[in-house]
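Lab manual, section 2.4: Encoding a predicted structure.

Procedure: take the sequence of the chain (91 residues), apply the prediction step described in section 2.3, and record the output as structure tokens. A sample record is shown.
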Amino acid sequence: MIRQILTQCEAGTRAHISANAANRLAAWRNHPSDHDIVAFIQRLIRVRDNQANGVIIDRSGGIALEAIVLEHCPDHFSDEDREIATNRLGR
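Recorded output:
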């Protein structure tokens, strides 16, 4: 499930941010397990340079990494991850 949602997140990033940002996000495909993908997302939501991207994607109707944490796969993430995502998206 997380792989399908990340594919949608990547498409939203391409549509609402840039092809370069989507290409960087596509590195999730190099992670063999769901556990590794979760760790990848955990790292990305903590990068200050990416903070605005999630808000832009979310408000444009796409699926942001933060929305994956909060809505799509919350059981895979920690309370701290969900708090970061909540604060970032203003929910």
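Check your result against the sample. The two ends are 23 Å apart (CA to CA).
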